[in-house]
């Protein structure tokens, strides 16, 4: 029972940490657009879908 509670807590912490990094990334993008007046070039962004036996997602790379 304690192990299950520990993993549930770790899962919630991981989710919150991911959300914080996502918000920080979006904020850095919008801050640069506001300061420099232009977004990243479309040719500078690469999206790669990734899947494993346990999860799926996308790797997004670019410079901003």
What does this protein look like?
The chain has 64 residues and is of the alpha+beta class. The chain has one helix spanning 2-36; strands at residues 46-51, 56-61.
Topology summary:
Elements: H1 2-36, E1 46-51, E2 56-61
Antiparallel strand pairs: 1-2
Estimate percent helicity. 40-55%
Strand coverage percent: 15-25%
- Structural class category: alpha+beta
Overall mean confidence score, pLDDT? 79
- Overall strand count: 2
Low-confidence spans: pLDDT under 50, at least 5 residues?
none
Could you tell me the radius of gyration in angstroms?
Answer: 17 Å
User: The biggest beta sheet, please?
Assistant: 2 strands, antiparallel
Order of neighbouring strands in the sheet with most strands: 1-2
Spatial gap, N to C terminus: 45 Å
H/E element order: HEE
Shape summary = flat
Output the number of helix runs. Answer: 1
Which features characterize this protein?
64 residues; alpha+beta; 1 helix; 2 strands; flat
